[in-house]
Every structure is written in C-alpha cells, then in structure tokens.
Amino acid sequence: MEQRPNYITPAGYAVLRAEYDRLFGTERPALVETIAWAAGNGDRSENGDYIYGRKRLREIDRRLGWLSKRMKAAKVVDPARAEDRTRVWFGATVTIADEDDNERVLTLVGDDEAEAGAGRIGWNAPIARALRGATVGDLRRVLLPAGEKEYEVIAIAYPAA
C-alpha cells in the first residue's frame, strides 16, 4: 500500500523534530534512570515508581515511533516559495465567505500541524480539498457534517519569501 506524502511546512516539521528530540534526548533517559533506581529498590509488584515508569516509557516509545514514521514520510513544502500565488495551494492563507457573508480566514497546512481553532486546516480536510486550486472569486461547495455549504474565495495570501 503506497502511503501518500505527509506535506508539512518547515515550521511544522521543526515542531515534530523538537518533540522527538525532547522525548528521546531528555525525557526518555531520565525515565530510564528512574526505572533503574526503582528496580533496585526490591519488590517491583508494589513499586509505584517502577510501574508508572514502565507505563510512561511504553507511551514515550510509542510516540517516538509515530513521530519517526511521520518525519520519514514528511515532504517539507515552503509556502513562501509557491510559484502560482493566484491559486489556493499548500500553505496558502485563504479568506472565504459563506452564503451569509460570514468570513473565515484559513491556512492550509499539513495534517500533523492542523489546529482548527487557530485557523490552520489540514491539507486533507474536506474544506481544504474543496479549496485546492481555487482563485479569487471562485465558488466552492463543501460537504460538511452539518450539511453542504458554499464558500466564495475572497483573498489568497502566501508568506513572504
């Protein structure tokens, strides 16, 4: 099964890398040290430091594995270097308006860096898929859980190079 590329901005990749480095370089070694100390205290079956430490170590290792896979699949795309700035592509900040003239500003980012509350929408979200390739003035229909909505693209912006 071919995995689709994990598009991500340079800032988003830096966040993933920083979390990986923090877990691998700081938290995991400190936890291993605590587990070794707790194991030396005798009976492990009732040793809270040991039991919790092992559980937390499994969580960290699982997260490190996930981060490693995501970074390996990552295709870093710098939106500041977009060639066609007249259309909505990865990294674009788009102002859209619905039928009631309610405006929203969205930035299309990688799925790993999406945060809807901050206006960062994952590249594969339904609204992002509908907006791909749109130009100012285009109308796009989006099928959302609340029903179908139509949006007009008001403005498109990309970060400065």
Compose a concise summary of this entry.
With 161 residues, the chain is an alpha/beta fold. It is 39% helix and 24% strand.
Task: Explain the overall architecture.
- The protein is α/β, with parallel strands linked by helices and 161 residues long.
- It has two domains: 6-76, Transcription elongation factor, GreA/GreB, N-terminal domain (Helix Hairpins); 79-157, Transcription elongation factor, GreA/GreB, C-terminal domain (Chitinase A, domain 3, Roll), CATH 3.10.50.30.
- 39% of the residues lie in helices and 24% in strands.
- The chain is built from three helices and seven strands, in the order βααββββαββ.
- It has helices at residues 10-39, 48-73, 126-131; strands at 6-8, 74-76, 93-97, 103-109, 120-122, 139-144, 147-157.
- The protein has a five-stranded mixed sheet. It has a two-stranded parallel sheet with strand order 1-2.
- α1 runs antiparallel to α2.
- The mean pLDDT is 90.
- GO terms for molecular function: DNA binding; RNA polymerase binding; translation elongation factor activity.
- Residues 6-76 form the Transcription elongation factor GreA/GreB N-terminal domain.
- It holds the Pfam family GreA_GreB.
